[in-house]
Amino acid sequence: YLKQNDITLNNLIFRDTIDLNLLKTLSFEITLVDHHVLADLWKPFSSKITEILDHRPKDPSWKWDDKVQDKMQMVGSCATLVANEILQNQNIQNNDLQILAKLLHGTILLDTVNFSKSADRTRELDIKVVEQLENILKIPKTGLLEYRSKIFNDLSAARTDITSLTPIQILFKDMKKLGHIPISGMPILIEKYIDIPGSKEAIFEMCNLHSTDILILMGMQIEGINVTRDLGIYNKNSFTKINEIVSFLKNNKQPDLFLQDKQSNMKGLMLFSQGNIKATRKH
Fold first, then answer.
1. Residue 54: is its pLDDT beyond 80?
2. What per-residue confidence (pLDDT) applies to 193?
3. What is the extent of the structural domain holding 248?
4. 227: closest CA among 129, 143, 159?
5. Is residue 232 a contact partner of residue 195, using CB atoms and an 8 Å limit?
């Protein structure tokens, strides 16, 4: 999708390509997007943060100064909040606005599963912003639903295409951490991932890289607008800890994951189907 919009890897900036020592000598402001809790690496720059755009529940343990503009809102896609800010900015050149509108439009459709009712991620602002972006892009009303479906299907296929990734890269593709425990989200079901040659070794390696005995795996499969989820919890040695995690997840009702045991063909991996497809890591 980036290639279709003439955006190459050279146009992208990644955290590990930024010289943090040089950054400390510069005057700048930071807007946090899609998160509001700083990683240790970025805590020295907390005074530079002036604005937060995020759509996940607020972490009560993280406090910000009053000078920081809190623009957190529960919407289906954080791209909705970004687009809403851009649409209120009158100083953007039309050509740049066209490119931004196309990228944001596709991202919102992908995040909301094309406004799927079963996924239940869509909020009023998501719909409003997408309609505004479609006006900018001059997308005709005739065939609009088909146009949205094509964008969603193309992006969904690209996101789930892991053919060029190694098993360890799949684990890192969408990895977050809860304390010292890695949580790897992946665009295939866990039961299918562990059938990939080298996947079991990758799980061992992931644990070793993060100095932990526990790894949480969250799988998702999207077919059209239908979503299927499963959950895997791997433990190398920490049987007491993993039993505590499983007990908490099964007994927690906010939200209830509706977990059902599944057969696992990997030693140390507990596998569950997740009946509540609306629940994600943000919960």
1. yes
2. 96
3. 167-274
4. 159
5. no
User: At residue 283, does pLDDT exceed 80?
Assistant: no
Q: What's the CATH code of the domain at 96?
A: 3.90.1640.10
Mean pLDDT, residues 23-28 taken together: 90
Residue 279 lies in a domain: no
Residue 179 lies in a domain: yes
Q: Which range in 94-98, 175-179, 206-210 is most confidently predicted, on average pLDDT?
A: 206-210
Give the chain's mean pLDDT.
89
CATH number for the domain spanning 217: value is 3.10.310.20
In total, how many domains does the chain have?
2
Same domain? For 114 and 174 the reply is no
Least confident of 56-70, 108-122, 233-247: 233-247
Q: Which of 159, 183, 218 is the last residue of a domain?
A: 159
SS3 track for the chain: CCHHHCCCHHHCCCHHHCCHHHHCCCCCCEEEECCCCCCHHHHHHHHHEEEEECCCCCCCCCCCCCCCEECCCCCCCHHHHHHHHHHCCCCCCHHHHHHHHHHHHHHHHHHCCCCCCCCCCCCHHHHHHHHHHHHHCCCCCCCHHHHHHHHHHHHHHHHHCCCCCCHHHHHHHEEEEECCEEEEEECCCHHHHCCCCCHHHHHHHHHHHCCCCEEEEEEEEEECCEEEEEEEEEECCCHHHHHHHHHHHHHCCCCCCCEEEECCCCCCEEEEEECCCCCCCCC
Tokens, residue 30: 């930071």
Q: Select from 159, 179, 209 the last residue of a domain.
A: 159
Q: What is the pLDDT of residues 138-183, one digit of tens each?
A: 999 999 999 999 999 999 888 888 988 999 999 999 898 887 889 9
